[in-house]
């Protein structure tokens, strides 16, 4: 079995980043040189995903434009002697097919993933949040490790996890693992628990491998935290009913950059800009003069 379909939900309103996201998708905000969603797509294509389905919504057309090839722009670069910039558009030629469907009502991430049902059919698939980069250079092969684990364990789902400070558990879905180690079976999942409720500090980190059974679980999941149909609650149902849901820890170099709020977005931008081969060293000097 090969898993080559990935679903990328990008329909959310990004209200925590207003006004930056009033008329542009948060997934198109740049981190360093590229929009966030380009890192996500590069990560997925590098690990062999062949068909990408974006779950979009109103105001998200620029994501579709970004992944189209733009022959006028290419011609303009050629005619104006800027051939060297053509390599910046290399990503347009990734060996992948793009598909788009709309989440017509913003009922939460679980609901967004359920919109992929008719496309995915009866196959396992990857879900990767369009607002989260894994690893500074997006070189992570976490999705590959997750699909391998899914196949080996005949799992119902495999979820990526990252350790977070206990003071941050209220922002994430948190696991109750059955064991220690890089790969573990999950006994329970709790969406955005309080510090005292949290059974661990292992937070869901934006990547999932899901069996098609998830669609039925989502359909039976009632709105939870924030009045939204949460994927965490649907996965919890699967754990209770069939079990066989596993977690994989991200390695330290695979840190997750979730750009959903300004604190995280500013930090990610600065970190990526400082790591930029051309601009990083000069920027470092500049920041030093600013903070002195
Ligand atoms: P978030 O919950 O962080 O996104 O979802 P949001 O709703 O846009 O954020 P705020 O709270 O208003 O600031 C994580 C990912 O899931 C997608 C988002 O686009 C984002 O990439 N998502 C979320 C959907 O596609 N549909 C939804 O109903 C919710």
UniProtKB/TrEMBL annotation:
Swiss-Prot/TrEMBL GO biological process terms: UDP-alpha-D-glucose metabolic process
Catalytic reaction equation(s): alpha-D-glucose 1-phosphate + UTP + H(+) = UDP-alpha-D-glucose + diphosphate
EC number annotated for this UniProt entry: 2.7.7.9
UniProt keyword annotation of NAD present: no
Highest taxon in the source lineage: Bacteria
Keyword terms, alphabetized: Nucleotidyltransferase, Transferase
Domain Nucleotidyl transferase, residue spans: 6-270
PANTHER family: UTP--GLUCOSE-1-PHOSPHATE URIDYLYLTRANSFERASE
Similarity comment: family membership: Belongs to the UDPGP type 2 family.
The protein's name: UTP--glucose-1-phosphate uridylyltransferase
Gene source species: Candidatus Raymondbacteria bacterium RIFOXYD12_FULL_49_13
Organism ancestry: Bacteria, Raymondiibacteriota
């Amino acid at each position: 079995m090969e898993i080559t379909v990935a679903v990328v939900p990008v329909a959310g309103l990004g209200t925590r980043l207003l006004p930056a996201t009033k008329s542009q998708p948060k997934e198109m905000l740049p981190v360093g040189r590229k929009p966030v969603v380009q890192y996500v797509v590069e990560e997925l294509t590098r690990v062999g995903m062949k068909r990408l389905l974006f779950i979009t919504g109103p105001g998200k057309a620029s994501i579709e434009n970004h992944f189209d090839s733009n022959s006028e722009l290419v011609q303009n670069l050629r005619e104006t002697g800027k051939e060297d910039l053509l390599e910046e558009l290399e990503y347009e030629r990734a060996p992948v097919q793009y598909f788009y469907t709309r989440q017509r009502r913003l009922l939460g991430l679980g609901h967004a993933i359920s919109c992929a049902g008719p496309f995915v059919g009866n196959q396992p698939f990857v879900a990767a949040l369009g607002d989260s980069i894994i690893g500074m250079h997006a070189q992570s092969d976490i999705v590959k490790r997750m699909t391998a684990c899914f196949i080996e364990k005949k799992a119902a789902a495999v979820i990526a996890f990252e350790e977070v400070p206990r003071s941050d558990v209220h922002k994430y879905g948190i696991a109750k693992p059955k064991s220690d180690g890089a790969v573990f079976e999950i006994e329970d999942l709790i969406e955005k628990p309080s510090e005292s409720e949290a059974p661990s500090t292992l937070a869901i980190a934006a990547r999932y491998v899901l069996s098609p059974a998830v669609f039925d679980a989502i359909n039976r999941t009632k709105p939870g935290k924030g009045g939204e149909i949460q994927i965490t609650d649907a996965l919890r149902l699967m754990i209770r009913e069939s079990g066989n849901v596993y977690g994989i820890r991200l390695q330290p170099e695979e840190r997750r950059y979730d750009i959903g709020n300004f604190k995280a977005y500013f930090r990610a931008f600065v970190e990526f800009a400082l790591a930029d081969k051309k601009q990083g060293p000069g920027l470092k000097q500049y920041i030093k003069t600013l903070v002195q």
